[in-house]
Design goal:
The complex is a heterodimer of chains A (437) and B (404). Chain A is mainly beta. Chain A is 7% helix and 56% strand. Chain B folds into two domains: 172 residues, Jelly Rolls (Sandwich), CATH 2.60.120; 182 residues, no CATH class. The chains are: A mainly beta (437), B alpha+beta (404). The interface between A and B is large, with 75 and 52 residues.
Chain lengths: 437, 404
């Protein structure tokens, strides 16, 4: 019992500190620190976000075939039908992005909440529902530069520019999964997709006749989305205790009608306030068709390996938002991930290192942007650790990923990304036991 | 602590350290800035055709300076300024001073402003001092005021050449009139003094060709002992000047502006057009540009003649109260400043005014341009108005940001 108390104590402190750290950054000024991420999130409706548990991220996969009745997953509704426990989970990520082009380097950091999901088994391992909220795209770029322009008297005016983007597309999703039999499960999850994106720029001039100029472009819109999932489980393939699970999902494309407002900060009646320069600028944005499929092979109770792929038809989407750029265009995105898990905690060993679940993976992401010459692809290497409660099925998963994105060729930008994620998955012990069964 | 718990503690400490290490401040840098649209400034210049002249009656009393003299200005007319002044009643005579009863004499010390002279700076001006014969009050004296004085009995006279400090002997008869008041201990002495003793008028003689400006704080009456070894200073209680201007000429394309508000310029703004075309623009600033009739001003001055300079105008948005008081004596909403390079231009940043028009309820479509003054120095200039040629009409210059 002492062990439990100590672990719970330290776990609570750790999670609390992590959240406090997150809040600290959230309360800081929007344009100051730790709010920015990838340069490539400048374009369109932001950069696609990998919203996964740390366990999935550390394996480089989406988790659609990761059949586990003791924990939840966001991406395959069919998995929710196999749930044995009520669960609640959330995740945070901290990313450090080191960018460079042929002339300069920059360092951005982004600390942000990832997702929130609760699942309930209506009929244990038969029918389950899920409610979740998670980001789909994120715009979190930030550039600081200096330059000059000419005023009406053709005099040079130097200025510093701080441009940054926040927000993106989020989903509020309600869905269910149904385990038709022990081999096949299906699921459906409609969701409300809502876009809330800010693109801002502050200009600071060295000419006293020009005050600091702040301009914000706020884009909003919402639409419904539909996701379908399939999970099949095939036991005893090569041995008596192995099994193979196959998962697939399809998310239908969504067209979002957007409203854009241009706002600025002005001194009006001796008070500095936000004013609307232009309102209700109509536009449109599109989320593409997304297909996922993959399988996970479980040769034993201690080990499993997954191979999953993702296709997003970004090439068929376009947006008439003012965040488009002539250099880049959207292109179909392919992602392939290969990962493995070792469940050391199932050894019943007294060794400290037998308290965990170990994960590792690698993923290749072709990216959703391209230029004439280059695809903005990303190669990810990842590893992770799962801390399993010995008294419940609750887990804390940690992952560390290193990614290489883009290139400095053709005057483009290369990003080296360090990303650390933590997800907390609370099951019946810290939540509540299903009573319907 | 068990080995397991030690292991967990180590794990947590390691992870927290990792978070702290990576939680460094960011350094966004310029990487990628080449892919966002560069801002540029677009400047629109709107010509303001609709102007009109306004006339007010300005105040001339109790400023830090008051004018005395006369000058015939080719551009701004024949100007005469009669100074009015009155000593305070209460005089503190220390026991050590050798003055008993009315056994003293009085003088007037005049300290002139060392910076400004209006007119022929090399000329000598002549003045006579007369006793004022009616009640007057400095704060109430305006450009149309008239205060009577007795020219039959001069109290003193003096000339102003290049010196800035003049001491004038005052006639004993006037001293005798003053003495009962400053020595009075009656309870109504102040009231009696206010209504019965009227002070002096400094009147320029006909051959005077310049206007000088008297410092009200440095000028004073002097009470002297019979042997003039002891002197007591008596400061001014009220002061003002009477202005008489005639023959001012102003062409149709120019508007004369005076610190005494005899003429100001009203500029009408096309508010509706401005709202429609610029309320949705990312405005950096909006400046009002006015052109001074520099050539006319300089060509109308003979050699060695001078006018007190003007480097800023007052811009008011109108008032429901006493316009002369508001435009002359209160803080303007904006100032227009002389351009340091192109000195014939005056700029006023009216961005805040347009902000109020665009994003609040401000609906004033006329602005009043004048030369307010708290100094008492007579200053005048000429601006080109809406009747001038296109190049010299007032302009509204709006600069805004666009992304290329």
């Amino acid at each position: 019992m002492n062990n439990l108390k100590l672990r719970t104590y330290f776990t609570s402190i750790f999670v609390l500190l992590f959240i406090l750290s997150s809040n600290t950054f959230a309360q800081s000024d929007e344009s100051s620190i730790s709010k920015s991420g990838s340069f490539y999130s400048l374009f369109g409706i932001g950069f696609p976000v990998e919203t996964n548990t740390s366990r999935e991220l550390s394996m480089g996969i989406s988790g659609i075939s990761l059949d586990n009745s003791q924990s939840n997953g966001l991406h395959n509704p069919a998995l929710w039908g196999t749930n044995a426990f009520s669960t609640a989970s959330t995740g945070f990520s901290f990313s450090k992005i080191l960018s460079k082009d042929n002339t300069a380097e920059s360092k951005n950091t982004a600390l942000q909440a990832g997702y929130l999901q609760v699942t309930f088994p209506i009929y244990r391992e038969k029918l389950g529902i899920s409610a979740s909220m998670y980001p789909v795209t994120r715009s979190n770029y930030r550039f600081f530069s200096t330059s000059s322009l000419l005023n009406e008297q053709n005099e040079t005016v130097n200025y510093a520019s701080d441009a940054y983007g926040t927000g993106g597309i989020n989903k509020f999703e309600l869905g269910f999964g149904w385990s038709i039999n022990k081999y096949i499960s299906i699921g459906y999850a409609p969701s409300l997709v809502f876009l809330s994106q800010n693109n801002s720029r502050e200009l600071f001039f060295d000419d006293g006749s020009f005050t600091t100029n702040v301009i914000d472009s706020r884009i909003t819109g919402s639409e419904f989305s539909h996701k379908f999932g399939l999970l099949t489980s095939i036991p005893t393939i090569f041995s008596s205790n192995d099994r193979l699970s196959f998962g697939a999902t399809a998310i239908l494309p969504v067209e979002i009608d957007t409203d854009e407002s241009i706002l600025s900060t002005r001194q009006v009646n001796n008070l500095v306030r936000e004013v609307t320069l232009d309102d209700n600028i109509s536009g449109g944005a599109k989320l593409p068709l997304e297909l996922n499929s993959g399988f996970t092979y479980y040769p034993s109770n201690f080990f499993n390996v997954s191979l999953e792929g993702k296709f997003q038809q970004w090439g068929d989407t376009d947006s008439n938002l003012n965040t488009s750029n002539e250099t880049f265009e959207l292109s179909d995105r392919y992602k392939l991930g290969l990962g493995t898990e070792y469940h050391a905690y199932r050894n019943n060993s007294d060794s400290f290192f037998s308290n965990f679940r170990y994960n590792a993976g690698v993923a290749y992401d072709s990216g959703h942007l391209k230029t004439d010459q280059e695809n903005i692809n990303t190669l990810w290497f990842s590893a992770g650790l799962g801390i399993i409660s010995p008294f419940s099925n609750s887990t804390i998963d940690l992952s560390a990923r290193y990614g290489l994105r883009g290139t400095t060729a053709n005057d483009l930008i290369q990003e080296r990304i360090w990303s650390f994620n933590i997800s907390v998955n609370l099951t019946e012990l810290m939540f509540f036991r299903p009573k319907l069964n | 602590m068990t080995t397991h718990n030690k292991g967990f503690v180590s794990l947590y400490i390691s992870l927290l350290t990792l978070i702290l290490v990576f939680n460094g401040c960011e350094d966004p840098g310029s990487v990628g800035s080449g892919f966002i649209n560069e801002p540029s400034i677009v400047t629109d210049t709107l010509t303001l055709d609709s102007t009109s002249n306004e006339n007010f009656i300005g105040y001339t009393g109790n400023f830090s300076l008051f004018s005395i003299g006369s000058y015939s200005d080719d551009l701004f007319g024949d100007i005469g300024a009669v100074g009015l002044l009155k000593p305070v009643r209460t005089v503190d005579l220390a026991d050590s001073i050798d003055i008993v009863g009315d056994n003293f004499s009085m003088k007037l010390e005049i300290q002139l402003d060392s910076l400004n002279t209006y007119g022929d700076t090399l000329s000598t001006s002549e003045f006579s001092i007369y006793e004022i014969t009616e009640v007057w009050r400095g704060n109430a004296i305006k450009t149309d005021s008239d205060v009577a004085y007795n020219t039959a009995s001069p109290i003193g006279s003096f000339t102003i050449g290049q010196e800035k400090n003049i001491i004038v002997d005052l006639d004993e008869s006037w001293k005798d009139k003053y003495y009962p008041y400053f020595s009075s201990t009656e309870v109504d002495a102040d009231s009696t003094y206010r209504y019965e003793f009227h002070g002096l008028a400094i009147v320029p003689e006909n051959n005077t060709n310049k206007i000088s400006f008297v410092s009200s704080s440095a000028s004073q009456f002097l009470i002297l002992s019979p042997d003039e070894t002891d002197t007591v200073s008596v400061s001014l209680n009220n002061w003002a000047y009477l202005l008489d201007r005639s023959g001012s000429t102003s062409a149709a394309e120019t508007t004369s502006l005076h610190t005494t508000l005899e003429q100001t310029m009203e500029v009408d703004l096309p508010l509706q057009t401005l709202k429609e075309e610029y309320s949705n623009k990312n405005i950096l600033n909006a400046r009002l540009l006015m052109y001074e009739n520099s050539d006319g001003l300089s060509n109308s001055l003979a050699a060695n003649h001078d006018r007190p300079g003007i480097n800023l105008f007052n811009i008011h948005l109108g008032t429901e109260f006493d316009e002369a008081y508001e435009y002359q004596l209160t803080q303007p909403e904006f100032n227009a400043f002389r351009d340091s390079v192109d000195t014939g231009k005056f700029y006023s940043d009216i961005t805040l005014f347009l902000n109020n028009v665009f994003y609040s309820t401000e609906d004033t479509d006329e602005i009043h341009v004048g030369i307010g003054s708290l100094s008492g120095v007579i200053r005048s200039t000429q601006l080109y108005n809406g009747n001038a040629t296109e190049d010299f009409r007032p302009k509204l210059i709006i600069s805004y940001i666009v992304n290329e």
